[in-house]
């Protein structure tokens, strides 16, 4: 029998694909690099490896949290894990909360570690999961890090979602109890500096601002409602670029990760230059897998890797810290946003 939660996992996949748009609206068109005509560098000089909180990544982007918790998404997780293995990408799974409630769903996550024994894997849970279950989520896949997602709008738009949002004490307890890196992550609504300050105050060391402009869970959950009456919330949140600026002042003390509407290698490089230590892509990889298959997705990822090297070469950037020194040109809209937010 298919339970309600498993059905929801399948629906999230089909709606993310239905609404998928190659042209994200995450704000990357509002920043430009300056072309460097004599960059004095070879492609082979470029090293795009990155690290944060003891996690060393050969590639600065990774497969962001999506699936697991049903027999269909088990198959998707297995394929994503094979893609991660072939391309050397780290991979997060979708929320394991379903498997913590019903152990018969654990196999759809365990398969990720079984398929990719040596890969970097991130667990994922909701913010109300207690520290004991957080530890179980890590053990389920012998994961290298734990993502804890914050998703207030999604829960509120879901008729069956949470209605209580006292999360900070629990997140603090998770951070204190878990001896692996803990990443607090949005799901596509972005983060403001006030949110980031509250998280750093309780000891959070890694934050994924996952901004709006890509996969839109306000739209997905509204579509699942009987009358779809909450469409006025479709644009809720801060874009990925706005969120990266919101986070910038924190980026010396906290590891900032980016996701949300990352659709090209240029988006990845811009995110890295705005201080992200690593960049997550969710829907583009799922879309490619479902529409074009596993081999084509591996090829797409290899093209992304090459694209990042091409851009870094044009900029004369040998590594990620060189990218952070690039001067950027900002649109007048973005400048107005930053002025109103007191971000300089
Ligand atoms: C997600 N996302 C997500 N995030 C999370 O922390 N836990 C989860 O279980 C899920 N589930 C999920 C399912 C599907 C089908 C998609 C497409 C996405 C959100 C995801 O990790 C990411 O934050 C957003 O999708 C924004 O990135 P993209 O899709 O625009 O690259």
Fold and architecture overview:
It is a single chain. By secondary structure, the chain is an alpha/beta fold. Helices cover 45% and strands 13% of the residues. It is built from 15 helices and 12 strands. The protein has an 8-stranded parallel beta sheet with strand order 4-11-10-9-8-7-6-5. A two-stranded antiparallel sheet has the order 1-12. A two-stranded antiparallel ribbon has the order 2-3. Helix 11 links the parallel strand 10 and strand 11. It is globular and about 60 Å long. Bound molecules: ligand FNR. The site of ligand FNR has 26 residues, from helix 1, strand 7 and helix 12. Ligand FNR binds next to helix 1, strand 7 and helix 12.
Named once each, the bound ligands are: ligand FNR
Characterize the main sheet: 8 strands, parallel
- Distinct helical segment count: 15
| Cα gyration radius (Å) | 19 Å
Helix coverage percent of residues?
A: 40-55%
List keywords for this structure.
binds ligand FNR, alpha/beta, 344 residues, two-stranded antiparallel sheet, single chain, 15 helices, 8-stranded parallel β-sheet
Helices and strands in order:
Layout: H1 4-18, E1 31-33, E2 50-52, E3 55-57, E4 61-63, H2 71-87, E5 91-92, H3 97-101, H4 107-115, E6 121-126, H5 131-141, E7 145-149, H6 152-157, H7 168-177, E8 182-185, H8 193-201, E9 206-208, H9 217-224, H10 240-248, E10 255-259, H11 265-273, E11 278-281, H12 283-292, H13 294-315, H14 320-324, E12 328-330, H15 332-340
Parallel strand pairs: 4-11, 5-6, 6-7, 7-8, 8-9, 9-10, 10-11
Antiparallel strand pairs: 1-12, 2-3
Helix pairs in contact: 1-9, 2-4, 2-13, 5-7, 11-13, 12-13
Bound molecules: ligand FNR.
